[in-house]
Design a protein that fits this description.
With 417 residues, this protein is an alpha+beta fold. It contains four helices and 24 strands. It has a six-stranded mixed sheet, with no helix packed on it. Strands 4-13-16-15-14-17 form a six-stranded antiparallel barrel. It is rod-shaped.
Length: 417
């Protein structure tokens, strides 16, 4: 038997598996380098994207806001006194004149206080009259006493002078003369005391009369105030205008200070605007905004800023520059473009859906031949409803894709077909 030489296989199974493993590793390495080095591509239908050109032109930073038409002047109608609604003279939406009755309240406590105050004033007036009569009677009595004292003094003085003469002539004795002296001194002192008493009574009466007068005037003022409080139970319009938000009903209990409604004066309108709190440090009186109404553009200017933040926003009042549009009504909503800066020249990038995925940090820029688009880093600044301000990364004349990047993932290059 002759041995036959069996030729050795050039590619063994083990060798083939080794080569395949090495090839797979090389492929993975190459794929990793390809994808991480910006080489990943995606074919895109050019009809399904938006290509925009970078331009240079006038730019003004602005934000869209919503405003509501409100009256230029609104007077809030509050209850000056509490009570129960007895009568309604008008309904919500009525046109009022100044002083016109709106509502009548009933408050028995106030009405009873008014009666008591009136009684108090009448009693005080009666007491003043009694005191005045007593003072007058006392004055008459004092005058009578003074008259008697003056008459007695004159008689005592006559007798004194006569007795003095007779005593000097030794026509009468010293005892009779001394009696005349004593009588004269007595009536002289009595007149002096009466004069002092009259002065004291007069001063006292004057003080009492002034105090009574002040007390009476105070009571009169209190009575007037009480009458006013009772009068306030009839709610009247403080100004002429249109009554709004008036919802009181017969029998309803109204507390003092409750807001019953509001009166809009017919002297024009303003716009109450809500602004996101993010812009609170950039909003100030004098800034302007524009809106379109009935195919015409109108300008508004900020008159007042309310810095209190509620639910993530604050409010400003804007007034019309020139005439307000014909046909606007209270409560109507306007879409306003509020300017945050003056107009300047800038490199402009049209707004688009790309911003949601990129945050304005990068964008796909088209190649010069328009067949591909590559990622480029950019820096954006201010914005308005139409454009972003480009600070770096793009130049006028460049073309970029501004439509949404939702389906692009981490692709580094787009092939446009």
């Amino acid at each position: 038997m002759v041995d036959r030489i069996i030729p050795k296989k050039k590619w063994s199974r083990k060798r083939i598996m080794m080569v395949c493993g090495i090839a797979a590793v090389i492929i993975l390495i190459l794929a990793s380098v390809y994808f991480t080095s910006g080489g990943s591509k995606l074919n895109v239908d050019i009809d399904r994207i938006t290509v925009s050109a970078i331009t240079k032109g006038p730019f003004q930073e602005s934000i869209p806001v919503n405003g509501v038409i409100v009256p230029l002047t609104t007077i809030y109608l509050d209850a000056q006194e509490g009570g129960t609604v007895m009568e309604k003279y008008v309904e919500d939406g009525a046109t009022l004149t100044k002083g016109q009755p709106i509502l009548k309240l009933s408050n028995t406590d106030l009405e009873l206080q008014l009666v008591n105050q009136q009684t108090s004033v009448y009693n005080l007036l009666t007491q003043m009259q009694i005191s005045r009569n007593a003072a007058q009677q006392n004055y008459i009595t004092n005058q009578n006493n003074m008259t008697d004292a003056e008459n007695n003094l004159k008689e005592a003085e006559r007798v004194y002078n006569l007795d003095k003469y007779l005593f000097e002539k030794k026509a009468i004795g010293s005892q009779e003369y001394q009696q005349a002296v004593n009588n004269y001194n007595y009536y002289l002192q009595k007149r002096k005391l009466l004069q002092q008493s009259v002065r004291t009574d007069s001063a006292t009466n004057a003080i009492q009369a002034e105090q009574a007068k002040q007390s009476y005037e105070a009571s009169q003022q209190a009575l007037q105030l009480m009458r006013q409080k009772v009068g306030d139970l009839i709610i009247r319009s403080p100004v002429s205008g249109e009554l709004n938000s008036f919802e009181s009903q017969i029998g309803q209990n109204i507390n003092k200070g409750d807001q019953l409604g509001q009166i809009d004066e017919p002297n024009g309108f303003k716009v109450r605007v809500n602004v996101d709190e993010h812009y609170i440090s950039r909003i100030y009186p004098g800034q302007t905004g524009t809106f379109t109404f009935a195919d015409s553009t109108y300008t508004l200017k900020i008159k007042k800023v309310y810095t209190q933040v509620t639910n993530g926003s604050f409010q400003v009042d804007m007034e019309f520059q020139g005439k307000a549009p014909q046909g606007i009504r209270r409560g109507q909503t306007l879409q306003i473009l509020l300017a945050l800066s003056d107009q300047t020249q800038a490199v402009l990038l049209p707004r688009g859906g790309f911003y949601e995925q990129t945050g304005g940090n990068w964008i796909f820029e088209l190649s010069p031949d328009g067949k591909t688009a590559h990622k480029v880093n950019i820096q954006l600044g201010r914005q308005n409803p139409d454009f972003y301000e480009v600070l770096s990364g793009l130049r006028p004349g460049d073309k970029v894709i501004t439509s949404s990047y939702d389906n692009y993932g981490n692709v580094q290059e787009l092939v446009l077909k």
